[in-house]
Amino acid sequence: MVRRYKKKTDRKKWSETDLSMAIESVKSGKTIKGSASQYGIPRVTLQRKIANPNSINAGFQKVFSLEQENALYDYVIDLEKRLMGLSTTDLRKLAYDFAVQLGVLHSFNNETGLAGRDWLQSFMQRHDLSNRKAEPTSAARADGFNCQSVDKFFQLLLEVQKKYNFHSSNIYNVDETGISVVPKSGSRVIAAKGRRQVAGKIAAERGETISVELCFSARGNYMPPMLIFPRVKTNESYLQGKPEGSWAVFRKSGWMETDIFTDWFFEFVKFSRASLDNPVLLLLDGHCTHVKNLKVAELGKKHGVVILCFPPHCTHRMQPLDVGFMKPMNTYYLEEVNKFQRTGTNVQMKDVFSLFGKAWQRAAKMDTAVNAFKTTGLYPLNASVFDPYFAKEGVASSSTTDTDSESVNRSFYRETLDNITQNSGISAVESTSSSSVTAINNGVGSASHSSLSPLVSSDQKATQMHDPVSITPANKSDTIPKPPVKRRKRGTAAVVTSDEYIAELRTSQDKKIKKDPKKAVPKTKIKKEPKNKRIANVNPVAILYSIETIKISGQSTVMLNPEWTKDYKWVRPSEISKYQAYCNLCKKTFELSNMGIAAVKSHEKDVKHTEKETAS
Fold first, then answer.
1. How many CA atoms lie within 13 A of 540 on its CB side?
2. For residues 466 and 473, what is the distance between their CA atoms, to the nearest angstrom?
3. Which of 167, 75, 196, 123 is nearest to 440 (CA)?
């Protein structure tokens, strides 16, 4: 079959709808010639269809009828909305089994059990389908992104919007992301045909993650980013090439922590010019450093920052930074890394800020931020933006004129497809957890437009009708008993700066302190003094209270005995160049030789200290 065939004649430009209207026109009393001329249908064709409605047209014939194909289309779209989308091979196998089960005449390959590629391409073109790469979505996100959570969030957003009347310049979104000297994905490169593998150079097998704090407004204002390097000590060389106004924090973990976010929040208040007279809305996810940070909640209330938290596992669709900014920013960062490595130099930690700064400046466009807020329905406020993702009760199919026969046919076709999917072992259905079923759209996407006769009687169909979702393997897993799993309490959408939320944070913090009083006192790390330090840089008296290897006059090494600290102390008068020891027992001063321990023992021998005196 020619895949890009272009018609050279005007034959059969009419549609099935035109034919049905022409037949109805003839039945209403008009002539066949007049009706054929009005709807652009050949007179002979109209006569044949009136005499025999089931007559076959000339030319290529579709395998499935319009009603059967619509049922197949509905099923494919339904699986995609349930996060169980079919691949092209799965669809071809499903179409073949569907044709066999219905007993229709087909030209599919009986050896492979697959429909042809030409049929697949034509089917996708007729129904505006595309072959997309599915993004991995966890079961928690599939379950968490539901109608109830989204509606509750938009109710809170509507309340604060009515109360404060935020302008686009005063609505911000903040989120963290991670970058590395070794980007996760590689870019496409030009190579010679026939090469089995095309490699790309990277700096290391595994790279360390640097956390980045990003923030922008619904008007397109971008706050300078903050980077968190996985280092203990501050290194000024890491700040080379940073964008103006940005800064870095050095922390061993390289992750966002409570005190770091608190410091960032101070900078945000300055950047946004938030005050009680100029309130600002800050949208963020439910990370513990955000929603369990009592200090940030109190500061927000004090400075006029209303903090609103997204519902859990919903940021992949509801957060503007995730929806519109992260992907282009990561793409630009990958390009900058590849461009840098073409110079023959590997990317090091000190180069990250410069490369990321260039990528951030390329991605930080006004229209990107504006469109991201618009797509998520946050500004302008559009609470119904996610309605197509959810199953709404009482919403019927797109066709409201289906007859009882057509409805029965559609149910029968759907049950047939369910049985095929269950028995054929299509991986897209079997590998999906049952938790995602609660957040799906179970409705039928499109309606049939023909009234073809059913394959079996209506009585038989009535006995075979079942709930399509209830018989899928994903739902059957609900009946399998599962051991109880202890899970932590899930978060929810909330206004973090509200009085009720702050009171809950304080109560929770007090309970933790009562349970473990040590948590009330912040931990302080004691730095160990370096060994082999020179005595000239240390208070001589303090050395008596340490057990360390020291150097006297930069020459020999001695070890002090802690038991001597109650009897001796170091003395160094300004007029004496050598170190001396003062004995508390005999009230005498003696010089220390290079071997300080030997000098102390020699003094004890000379003055003949008794054990009793020493003990005293």
1. 16
2. 14
3. 75
Instruction: Give the contacts of 155 (CB within 8 A, at least 6 positions apart).
Output: none
**For the segment 414-452, what is each residue's pLDDT rounded down to a tens digit?**
788 888 877 765 543 333 333 333 333 333 333 333 333
Averaged over 172-190, what is the pLDDT?
86
- Does residue 193 form part of some domain? no
User: Rounded to 5 degrees, what are φ and ψ at 426?
Assistant: -65, 125
Residue bearing tokens 């389908």: 129
Q: HSE (CB half, 13 Å, CA atoms) of 61?
A: 11
The per-residue DSSP string of 126-173 comes to: HTT----PPPP--HHHHHHS-HHHHHHHHHHHHHHHHHH---GGGEEE
Q: What share of the chain is helix, strand, coil (3-state, %, to 5)?
A: 45, 10, 45
Terminal CA-CA length for the chain: 110
Beta bridge pairs of residue 308 = 283, 495
For residues 344 and 278, state if they share a domain. yes
**Best CA proximity match to 435, nearest among 235, 139, 165:** 139
DSSP character at residue 297:
H
Print the domain residue range for 427.
Answer: 66-134+405-479
The first and second tokens of residue 282, run together, are 């800050």
Whole-prediction pTM: 0.63
Q: State pLDDT tens for residues 522-568.
A: 555 555 555 444 334 433 333 333 333 444 444 433 444 444 444 55
255, part of any domain = yes
* Token pair belonging to 134: 């599915």
Closest CA to 373 of 283, 313, 306, 312: 283
pLDDT at 367: 96
What kind and span of H or E run contains 217?
strand 209-217
Query: Does residue 392 have a pLDDT over 70?
Result: no
Which of 325, 321, 322, 287 has the alpha carbon at shortest distance from 307?
287
Residue 348 CA to residue 359 CA, distance in Å, equals: 16
Number of other residues whose CB lies within 10 A of the CB of residue 92 = 22
Does residue 77 sit in the same domain as residue 221?
no
Is 206 or 67 the better-scoring residue by pLDDT? 67
Query: By three-state DSSP, how is residue 573 classified?
Result: coil
| Residues 12 and 152 grouped into a single domain | no
Residues 90 and 112 in one domain: yes
Q: Where are the beta strands (DSSP E) in 264-319?
A: 280-284, 305-309
Q: Strand 549-552 vs strand 494-495: parallel, antiparallel, or unpaired?
A: unpaired
- The two tokens of residue 127 are 């129904």
Residues 234 and 311 in one domain: yes
